[in-house]
């Protein structure tokens, strides 16, 4: 009997030294972002109050590879290359002929994939003399990663945390504060956009759209401050492609290549990280399926519309073409806080329109069941967000068993669930409620979309 390696690792010297930019290989170019006032395509000057120029250049670049600065590579080595695992115990439990691999990003100091972009973002801000960065966070993974990165480069950090997550996940907040960040529950009284929301909805649970508005407002008011986003934007997704590039190299070591690639999707960053380097091969003729998995309570890909919309509730951001549920959509307080965003990354949305990816949604009880199964077989407690990818991987492996075919399945385990034990406790007690975003609710939220001439 042939022994299969459980863990496939790369040496530090094998770590990729450039990010992959999928815009170089798109068969149809990405629709441009529009100015929120004029509805005309925006230029670098429009983004300069919010982002350092190097990130603006990366946002619009069509170069296939962009070098990772040496200073960023050195910090990456604190956790990169991350391990690729063969989920042999899960395969045995499912009695499947499928081979299941997962890339584990929970080994980063902040506990998730988010550090792959927070480090370069903080670096480029530092290089331009920025003293203070504002941001938002849903479940807290992004806020944690940026807090850590800002501390490494001597930058102040203010995080607007969605209020329901601020209440559900106090230890995420404590970790951000340990890294030196100021954390504010959103919506708050510290901004005009926050006060406006609280006037009409004093008990608002918050949303990522609201938190973005508050963070952007503060950044626009101070010359020494810039704004940072943990998902959605092109440069953010590009920074994450180090995940998929490493996974390719690791699978080559065992002579394998995926038939099916899976990632959970909220804004699109970890999904892009694992899939984009393989979608490059799909464009070149490889026969692979790429599956994006989202919550039934926040189904932007499966129930949203593909159109121009604001990235925030306060309508301060540029208009981008994406799958959206409407910028004033307020999601229910499901426990996969990192997936509670009204829109999907323009690049991911564009790939959906091109037919390069497929999408599905799950209720939270089904995903937590998958997370518990994974923990009991593989020993790793996954965050609520990647349990969506685990659920899809299990379903695909069962399909392989039923059809009697062997497929290689790869998914991204984007972070651990150590700060989400309160959510697991509720699941184990039977207290989690499945929430489906109805067609009527979708139509109501979409009725407020901006009209583009």
TrEMBL record:
The keyword Nucleotide-binding does not apply. Residues 78-415 form the Tryptophan synthase beta chain-like PALP domain. GO terms for cellular component: cytoplasm. It is an enzyme of class 4 (lyase). Pathway: Amino-acid biosynthesis; L-tryptophan biosynthesis; L-tryptophan from chorismate: step 5/5. The modification N6-(pyridoxal phosphate)lysine is found at residue 114. InterPro entries: Trp_synth_b-like, Trp_synth_b_CS, Trp_synth_beta, Trp_synth_beta/beta-like, TrpB-like_PALP, TrpB-like_PALP_sf. It catalyses: (1S,2R)-1-C-(indol-3-yl)glycerol 3-phosphate + L-serine = D-glyceraldehyde 3-phosphate + L-tryptophan + H2O. Its EC number is 4.2.1.20. SUPFAM superfamilies: Tryptophan synthase beta subunit-like PLP-dependent enzymes. Keywords: Amino-acid biosynthesis, Aromatic amino acid biosynthesis, Lyase, Pyridoxal phosphate, Tryptophan biosynthesis. One of its GO terms (molecular function) is tryptophan synthase activity. Its cofactor is pyridoxal 5'-phosphate. It comes from the Bacteria. The beta subunit is responsible for the synthesis of L-tryptophan from indole and L-serine. PANTHER family: TRYPTOPHAN SYNTHASE, TRYPTOPHAN SYNTHASE-RELATED. NCBIfam families: PRK12391.1 (NF009057), trpB_rel (TIGR01415). Belongs to the TrpB family. Tetramer of two alpha and two beta chains. This is Tryptophan synthase beta chain. It comes from Candidatus Chlorohelix allophototropha. The gene is trpB.
């Amino acid at each position: 009997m042939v022994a299969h390696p459980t863990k496939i690792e790369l040496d530090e010297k094998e770590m990729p030294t450039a990010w992959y930019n999928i815009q170089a290989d798109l068969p149809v170019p990405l629709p441009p972002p529009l100015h929120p006032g004029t509805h005309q395509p925006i230029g670098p000057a429009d983004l300069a109050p919010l982002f350092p120029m190097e990130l603006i250049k990366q946002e619009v670049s069509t170069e296939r590879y962009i070098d990772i600065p040496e200073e960023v590579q050195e910090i990456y080595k604190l956790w990169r290359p991350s391990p690729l695992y063969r989920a042999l115990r899960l395969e045995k439990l499912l009695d499947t002929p499928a081979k299941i691999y997962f890339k584990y990003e929970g080994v980063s100091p902040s506990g998730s994939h988010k550090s792959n972009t927070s480090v370069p973002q903080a670096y480029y801000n530092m290089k331009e003399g920025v003293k203070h960065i504002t941001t938002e966070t849903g479940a807290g993974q992004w806020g944690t990663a940026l807090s850590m990165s800002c501390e490494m480069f001597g930058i102040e950090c203010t995080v607007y945390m969605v209020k329901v997550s601020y209440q559900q996940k106090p230890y995420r907040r404590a970790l951000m504060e340990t890294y030196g960040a100021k954390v504010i529950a959103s919506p708050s009284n510290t901004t005009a956009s926050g006060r406006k929301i609280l006037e009409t909805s004093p008990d608002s649970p918050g949303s990522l759209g609201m938190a973005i508005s508050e963070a952007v407002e503060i950044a626009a008011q101070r010359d020494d401050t810039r704004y940072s986003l943990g998902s959605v934007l092109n440069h953010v997704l590009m920074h994450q492609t180090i995940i998929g590039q490493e996974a390719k190299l690791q699978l080559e070591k065992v002579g394998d290549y995926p038939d099916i690639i899976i990632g959970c999707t909220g804004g699109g960053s970890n999904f892009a990280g694992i899939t984009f380097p393989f979608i490059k091969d799909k464009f070149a003729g490889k026969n692979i399926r790429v599956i994006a998995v989202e919550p039934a309570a926040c189904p932007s890909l499966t129930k949203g519309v593909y159109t121009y919309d604001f990235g925030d509730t306060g309508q301060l951001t540029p208009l981008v073409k994406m799958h959206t549920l409407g910028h004033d959509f307020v999601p229910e307080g499901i426990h996969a806080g990192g997936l509670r965003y009204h829109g999907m990354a323009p690049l991911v949305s564009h790939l959906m329109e091109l037919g390069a990816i497929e999408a599905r949604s799950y209720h939270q009880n089904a995903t937590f069941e998958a997370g518990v199964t994974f923990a009991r077989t593989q020993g790793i407690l996954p965050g609520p967000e990647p349990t969506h990818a685990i659920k899809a991987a299990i379903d695909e492996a069962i399909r392989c068993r039923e059809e009697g075919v062997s497929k290689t399945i790869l998914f991204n385990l984007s972070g651990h669930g150590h700060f989400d034990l309160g959510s697991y406790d509720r699941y184990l007690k039977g207290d989690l409620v499945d929430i489906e975003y109805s067609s009527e609710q979708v139509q109501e939220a979409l009725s407020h979309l901006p009209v583009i001439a």
